[in-house]
Amino acid sequence: MGALRQGRRTEKIFEIIYVGGKRMRRYKKQISRIVTIAMLFAFLVGNSNMVHAMDTTQIRYASKYITVKGNKMHLALYGKLDASGEKFADEGKTTLVMLPALGVPSPHIYFKPLAESLDESFNVVIVEPFGYGLSDGALTDRTVDNINSEVNVALDTMGIEQCVLLVHSISGVYGLNFVQNYPEKVKGFIAVDNTVYDEELAEAMEMEKKYMLQGIDEFQKIKNSFSSLEEFQTALKTDPDKYGAALPQVSGYTYTESDREEYIQAYSLSNNDTIRSEVNGMDQSLLSIKNKKFPSALPVLTMISSENVQNVPAWETAHRNQLDLESGNHQLYIVNGGHYIWYTNLTQVVQLINEWRMENHF
User: Is residue 346 over pLDDT 60?
Assistant: First the structure.
């Protein structure tokens, strides 16, 4: 079975499939203003101490699996590792924990350019939550409390007592709640165009949720038209553009063949029932941060997209409402680019993070 019979039908389906927390028009270079706004709405969108076999491919990177509440969770570690590859060589260095946008096929691959740029400054841990990347799915509902509990167990399993939490998009919702529920775990917070609560945006969540669920259904239909997962992966690798499986385009950065293989594997597993559960709960997740603010004493660096500020005037205001800019501990910057601002503006994002790190002695 395999490929769809008509290319036009393939185009139509992939126009509405969400990948990496956004709706993408697969055969068009430009996204219309309507779709750009829809993308924005979408963004609003363990018990075991057992650490499994580690694949140490280079001195500054390791792929690691841990067991969290009975399921396998994949982590990517960036920074100087010790000889065993099990730990960071300098455990006194601040750990930076990265959490992804809604539905990103491979949090590791999409965060990799940023992680590599920061691995001299931090011990970096990219978390692939359940349903993402190479991690298992989960049968428990994808509520804010469940997701944050799993992140907390992952930190405990890794022996991370405190960290700087870096969030992007929907993980900003989880992150703000994490700070309030596990304050002892977070010494600083970096928000990259994070999801915020706003009445108008909240009203659009039901409509956007419908589109995203439709995209998941269509993805699964296409995947199931192949006789095996391996056949589907072969099709993705042969013609990634056709199926929307091309690697992210990051200015000035070149992914490796190994990255491409991991991305294809992760992409073939994406849009699964665990992500469906998370999408189903996205409106309630958003409500969980209504009227919530970051603690005034917590160092917070917020960077938001200039494109989103331009397209949605409430975007900047809603971010300001989460912060106490008069405290001296919270900073807000508008960075040129779209929602994935490090894709086009990696240098400035890294510079702002490092300046903030040094100011706060992390």
Answer: yes
**CB-based contact 294:165 (threshold 8 Å):** no
Coil, strand or helix at 157: helix
Instruction: Confirm if 335 and 341 have CB atoms less than 8 A apart.
Output: yes
Question: Could you report the per-residue pLDDT of 188-230, keeping only the tens digit for each?
Answer: 999 999 999 988 777 767 778 888 999 999 999 999 999 999 9
Phi then psi for 62, rounded to 5 degrees? -145, 145
Beta strands in 93-153 (DSSP E): 95-99, 123-128
Q: How far, in Å, CA of 30 to CA of 111, rounded?
A: 23
* The residue type at 320: R
Give the CA angle between residues 213, 214, 220 to the nearest 5°. 90
Average pLDDT score, the chain: 86
Phi and psi at residue 126, in whole multiples of 5°? Answer: -95, 120
Q: CA angle, 179 as apex, 173 and 185 as ends, to 5°?
A: 135
Q: Which residues lie closer than 8 Å to 224 by C-beta, 6 or more apart?
A: none
DSSP three-state, residue 226: coil
Give dist(CA 18, CA 42) in Å, integer.
Answer: 9
With DSSP H G I counted as helix, E B as strand and the rest as coil, what are the percentages for the chain, rounded to 5? Answer: 45, 15, 40
What is the amino acid identity at position 131?
G
CA distances from 202 to 24, 197, 288 (A): 21, 7, 12
Measured in residues, the chain has a length of 362
Q: Which residues pair with 65 in a beta bridge?
A: 74
From 73, 65, 76, 46, select the one nearest 150 (Cα to Cα).
Answer: 46
> pLDDT digit string (tens) for 48-84?
333 443 444 446 899 999 999 999 999 999 999 988 8
